[in-house]
Amino acid sequence: xxxxxxxxxxxxxxxxxxxxxxxxxxxxxxxxxxxxxxxxxxxxxxxxxxxxxxxxxxxxxxxxxxxxxxxxxxxxxxxxxxxxxxxxxxxxxxxxxxxxxxxxxxxxxxxxxxxxxxxxxxxxxxxxxxxxxxxxxxxxxxxxxxxxxxxxxxxxxxxxxxxxxxxxxxxxxxxxxxxxxxxxxxxxxxxxxxxxxxxxxxxxxxxxxxxxxxxxxxxxxxxxxxxxxxxxxxxxxxxxxxxxxxxxxxxxxxxxxxxxxxxxxxxxxxxxxxxxxxxxxxxxxxxxxxxxxxxxxxxxxxxxxxxxxxxxxxxxxxxxxxxxxxxxxxxxxxxxxxxxxxxxx
Length: 345
What we know:
There is one protein chain. Helix 3 runs parallel beside helix 4 (104-115). It is built from twelve helices and eleven strands. Strand 2 (32-37), helix 2 (39-48) and strand 3 (57-60) form a beta-alpha-beta unit. It starts with a strand and ends with a helix. It is α/β, with parallel strands linked by helices and 345 residues long. The chain has an eleven-stranded mixed beta sheet with strand order 3-2-1-4-11-10-5-6-9-7-8, sandwiched between helices. Helices cover 48% and strands 15% of the residues.
């Protein structure tokens, strides 16, 4: 398997990206790691920081998409950027998956236009695993600020397929993020989405308030990208706050420091649960080939784990399942639309 990493994008590029590539090369020996970016810069940074890239392939790209660039720059002004070149390689089948910690809007736009969506899927969505006691998949966590109830329903189906294939959960429970559990809560979007999800055949458990999500309320949480992203950032921020507070408490004095030693393993486990680097990245579900969005502030460990995510994604065959669903969903929708237009058929 060939995993392509955008070496130039992200807050800590290219140094941490190269460190992540080196780690991935050691851990996933049976796979090929490929970097895309400015060859001279990549080589200079690797030599200066004693990073071994022996065995890593490099595809040259002249420019970089910055966090300030517009989403369309990836297909207009900067077609020679590492992100654009990487997406073209994926589209042509030269690699099996693409990992980038770069500009989210540009990555989604580029993936949609260059790699293209799965036929029948209206919007791609960022599928983020929330760092809770059990895996909870948030769909969408930032790709689409405004959506329709039909989009929400497709997010739910794609999320269910992902949790079935990646985590082995039979009939994942679907919850809709809302400001109340009642069916008539929320704005018109949530009310209409509730009705569609209830009739979808999915294991829909209803509306879920944010405070209930950490307590095993659902396996897949669906939302528009605006609400989902705010919720995701709040969870990540609260996790960091709690770990910082816990550290202060446990290092108060000699007695608490000694007590900490008896809980060391559990504390490490808790820290890993809230560490975004452990999850590595989030796939763009609905894109025809695997694209993994790594956190903008990713360090080497996060990039390595994003590569792991890409490998799991390819091996799972999730996209094949989504393609089957999309074809069936599209056919049902066409029949429903025809029935509305022409009467019972």
